[in-house]
Design brief:
alpha/beta; 5-stranded antiparallel sheet; 3 domains; Beta-Lactamase; single chain; 598 residues; binds ligand C2E; Alpha-Beta Plaits
């Protein structure tokens, strides 16, 4: 609280000002007062600019010249715009003038440009001086150069958040970012990986080549790591040769392994430091949120434990804290490599599952299904198709399937055997790839196969991934003359709204409904409904996975057109399929015999 004395002093000062104005008629006193004000003007460390009502500079003080670099004669008669930097948008200046005109005062931080081009921050107070009529006659700006203060702030921030040696974020900053990321995940539980990275035998480098070389190695590794991890992650040096890496955007263990492998790749070239050529390797421990912990301490502790285990196993190795995650990732990676090699070594073959047309009582063709005989034994499509999708290998694999089918049809035809229509499965990624139609057209032409002998199976979800694109591709296929199937119908959207807009020919009722068609009234109702929908839209219906004569009977009674399943035949290699096509139809198919195809 101001004391009575303070209040009296303020009062005195007010009187002093009043005296100055009052004694303006006395030239001697006026001169003295004027000298006081001039001394303030000349000696203050704040820059002062006085402009007229039009904003033309009429007076500047010495501090103005010190701060801006402009001598008085360079500034007088000019507009203060000479000081303007490009740091502020036009709205900033609009607001400045609005406040000055409306309130008579503006105060705030502003970035200006010195004569030497340097942009610097100022704290500025600008006020208007009015004439008797209340019109602004002058504007006075008083400003401080803030660059020193800012520089000190930046230095403090630099010292407290960054590692002095590598310039990378330090432990404090890393942990604060990590806890921020974890707090964010409280709500969505998305994965996050923490890597503890340690240079192998770094102590040797320090001991034998000295700390100067050791420091250079750390700087080099720091910049390699941040280059390799990129802006998506955060690399930090915690101390010594320990680096921590945060990977906030990883979804699967194999994505994490992918990043770690990239790090190892970055380190695989020798590094040249201070005239020494060094081969570096590292050990990496990995902990994953949420599997390995939900807070900073747990995750760091576990990544550290994993790093210890990685170190035991030698040169450039990594370990997940949860071994199961590591196993999953390496299994997937092994499978991916095997898939690539399998494609090169031609380990993929097609088998054919016959189809039967109930209406005509005859075989109607087959579905081509891919088989992989890897050196470790057969791998089911449910294991390798999703992986091939994920890695993009499905594109070459799918093209190979289409080519194999066309080649096979051509071969059968050349021997006088008509296999009926062969349906090929297309996964979503294949279906939406650019240039698919023209490639298919090219292959059909190459083997001289009529497109009407081919069917294309695509799942509902594959179609829905990009409906407009799907409609265009499906139309193109139909225009070519191929038959279009919606596979696994009933498991996806099954919306009549989109179904009627799709250029399709056949609905394939999913096996899961056929399984329960006799016992589960819901499955029976769905199956009947699918047949009804197909009828009303003028489409054919195929039931897949038919295993018993009773299921066949149900489907026949309810108007299903075709069936496919173990009741008729399992998957057959090409020569067995050819023999099957020429054989008699089993008795349970109502005694109808012959091999006249639909
Ligand atoms: P899908 O197209 O729905 O194929 C039908 C699956 O049901 C096949 O499994 C077939 O062997 C099986 N199946 C047929 N009848 C019966 C039956 O009576 N009982 C039982 N239990 N199963 C039966 P598969 O060959 O394992 O294929 C699984 C999935 O893999 C296929 O489902 C298809 O989505 C995909 N796939 C297979 N080959 C290819 C291909 O060449 N390209 C693409 N993109 N996907 C393929
Ligand atoms: Mg299919
Ligand atoms: Mg299916």
């Amino acid at each position: 609280m101001p004391s009575r004395d303070d209040a009296a002093k303020t009062e005195e000062m007010k009187l002093e000002w009043e005296k100055m104005f009052f004694f303006c008629d006395d030239p001697a006193r006026t001169r003295r007062y004027f000298q006081i004000i001039k001394a303030v003007f000349d000696n203050t460390v704040e820059g002062i600019v006085i402009t007229d009502a039009n904003g033309i500079i009429r007076m500047v003080n010495a501090a103005f010249s010190t701060i801006t670099g402009y001598a008085p004669e360079e500034a007088l008669g000019k507009n203060p715009r000479i000081l303007k930097s490009d740091r502020h948008p036009p709205e900033f200046y609009e607001n400045f003038w609005k406040r000055l005109v409306n309130d008579g005062k503006w105060e705030g931080e502003i970035w200006n440009r010195r004569k030497n081009g340097e942009v610097y921050p100022e704290w500025m107070v600008c006020s208007a001086v009015y004439d008797e009529e209340g019109n602004a006659e002058h504007y006075i700006s008083v400003f401080n150069d803030l660059s020193e203060v800012k520089f000190k702030d930046a230095q403090i921030e630099l010292r407290s958040n960054y590692d002095y040696l590598t310039g990378l974020p330090n432990k404090e900053m890393f942990q604060s970012r990590l806890s921020g990321e974890l707090a964010h995940r409280e709500r969505n539980s998305e994965r996050l990986a923490l890597l503890v990275f340690d240079i192998n035998r770094f102590k040797n480098i320090n001991d034998t080549l000295g700390h100067f070389v050791g420091d250079s190695v750390l700087r080099k590794v720091g910049s390699l790591l941040s280059e390799c991890i990129g802006s998506g992650g955060l690399v930090s040096r915690i101390g010594g040769d320990d680096f921590h890496i945060l990977l906030p955007d990883v979804h699967t263990p194999d994505e994490i392994v992918g990043q770690v492998k990239r790090v190892f790749e970055c380190l695989s070239d020798p590094v040249d430091v201070e005239g020494h050529r060094l081969f570096l390797s590292a050990s990496v421990g990995i902990s994953v949120f949420p599997e390995d912990g939900r807070d900073v301490d747990d995750l760091l502790k576990r990544a550290d434990i994993a790093m210890g285990k990685a170190k035991e196993s030698g040169i450039s190795s990594y370990r997940f804290f949860t071994e199961e995650l590591g196993r999953r990732a390496s299994l997937k990676l092994t499978l991916e490599n095997a898939l690539r090699e399998g494609l090169e070594r031609n380990e993929f073959h097609l088998h054919y599952q016959p189809k039967y047309c109930i209406r005509r009582g005859a075989f109607s063709g087959a579905e081509a299904l891919l088989r992989w005989n890897s050196p470790e034994g057969p791998v089911p499509p449910s294991d390798f198709i999703p992986l091939a999708e994920e890695t993009g290998l499905i594109l070459s694999l799918g093209e190979e399937v289409f080519r194999k089918v066309c080649r096979q049809i051509a071969e059968w035809r050349s021997r006088g055997y008509s296999p009926g229509e062969i349906a090929v499965n297309l996964s979503a990624r294949q279906f939406h790839q650019k240039g698919l139609l023209s490639r298919m057209k090219g292959i059909l032409g190459e083997y001289d196969v009529p497109p009407s002998l081919l069917g294309i199976e695509i799942t509902e979800s594959g179609i829905m991934e990009n409906l407009m694109d799907s409609i265009a591709v499906l139309s193109g296929m139909k225009d070519l003359g191929m038959t279009v199937y919606v596979d696994d119908f009933g498991t996806g959207y099954s919306s009549l709204n989109y179904l009627k807009r799709l250029p399709i020919d056949v609905l394939k009722i999913d096996k899961s409904f056929i399984d329960g068609v006799l016992e589960d009234p819901n499955d029976a109702a769905i199956t009947r409904a699918v047949v009804g929908i197909a009828r009303s839209l003028g489409l054919r219906v195929v039931a897949e996975g038919v295993e018993t004569p009773e299921q066949l009977d149900f489907l026949r009674r309810n108007g299903c057109d075709e069936i496919q399943g173990y009741l008729l035949s399992r998957l057959l290699p090409p020569d067995a399929f050819e023999k099957f096509g020429e054989s008699e139809i089993p008795l349970c198919f109502n005694g109808l015999s012959g091999y006249n195809h639909c």
